[in-house]
Design brief:
Length: 341
């Protein structure tokens, strides 16, 4: 009698390693990062290189202190992804010590003090960003004027001078200005539509920068969806929540308006948060219904913080609150067990 062949495993197997998936995430960041570099200059690249070096060094140090195989764990590239996401959120004028503290909070405090990759309850890059925003608000809100709104961007020498914190030598006030969300919060005297038109912000789709940056991260997010690295549930519910709430509170452009859906979708860190931050598999909800609730919660909090809170953009704080609620969301949205009513 011919022996029966052993049954095949019912589980699917993903051919990509953690390191390969992380590199795909870095690749998906390229369009948005390229737009940042084009409109905001060399400081973006300086931040990227500096934070990646810091993140790898701190990751190796913590792995050695925890007696883990350093080279093996460095190959998951999770530290590089954390550095990239934090670097693109920092102002291009950030001095070297700002990136150092942010990376320390992200890699050491938010990741390794909780047990390393897979054990951290909060998104590391957003922990680093939120810590910097609370501790150093002046440096964190000092953005360059986009290339389309200023006569010229700082050159490479000036960018390095800013990186080494030489503000007096570079005349930083000639280059910096409020972001669109900062300006919008300060606008109380004129109609919103007139404000956008006069400032050039969202009045057209060329030369302003922020809508192109968000469009770049939207393209990268679609790439992650195409490669099935992330699912659609969190980004869709995140963006729908912002769009619906901003539409409900938008009165057509009066001085009391909280901004149109288009403005909220393509200003600040909306697309970066929807596709790259909120979808972190370690800190996000895991059930299908839970992901929808989780994304909607974060999107709603982003709008509430923008419209009624102190900070002009609330992506970091909204994501951290969502991380805190993720275990409860998963518990309340468990799917029905097979064979049960």
């Amino acid at each position: 009698m011919k022996p029966l062949a052993p049954p095949s495993s019912p589980h699917g197997h993903e051919g990509s390693s953690t390191g390969q998936l992380m590199l795909q995430v870095v690749l998906a960041c390229v369009p948005g990062t390229a737009a940042l570099c084009f409109f905001f200059g060399n400081g973006v690249l300086i931040n990227l290189v500096w934070l990646c070096v810091l993140a790898v060094m701190l990751e190796a140090l913590m792995l050695a202190l925890r007696k883990k195989p350093v080279l093996f764990h460095l190959q998951d590239y999770s530290a590089v992804v954390t550095a990239v996401l934090l670097a693109v959120a920092l102002p291009p004028t950030a001095p070297w010590w700002l990136g150092l503290w942010g990376t320390f909070f992200a890699v050491v405090v938010a990741k390794h003090l909780y047990g390393g990759l897979g054990s951290n309850p909060f998104n590391p890059s957003m922990v680093g960003y939120a810590a910097l925003l609370v501790a150093f608000p002046a440096q964190m809100t000092r953005w360059l004027l986009p290339a389309g709104l200023s006569h010229d961007l700082p050159g490479l020498a000036t960018s390095f001078a800013l990186f080494f914190d030489h503000d007096v030598l570079t005349g930083i006030d000639a280059y910096t200005g409020a972001t669109p969300l900062d300006k919008f919060r300060q606008n109380h005297a004129q109609l919103v539509d007139e404000f956008w038109k006069s400032s050039g912000v969202m009045g057209h789709w060329s030369g302003i920068g922020w809508e192109w940056v968000n469009s770049g991260f939207l393209v990268g997010g679609c790439y992650l969806l195409y490669k099935k690295i992330i699912n659609w549930h969190i980004p869709l519910s995140f963006l729908l929540a912002i769009a619906v709430l901003s539409a409900l509170f938008y009165d057509g452009g009066s001085s009391q308006s909280h901004g149109s859906p288009l403005m909220h979708l393509f200003a600040g860190a909306t697309m970066l948060g929807a596709f790259f931050i909120a979808t972190d598999p370690v800190t996000a909800a895991t059930t299908e219904r839970g992901k929808l609730v989780y994304g909607a919660l974060i999107g709603s909090l982003v709008f509430v913080i923008r419209a009624f809170g102190t900070y002009p953009d609330g992506v970091a704080f909204a994501v951290l609150i969502g991380n805190l609620a993720a275990p409860l969301i998963d518990r309340c949205t468990q799917p029905r067990s097979f064979g049960h009513e």
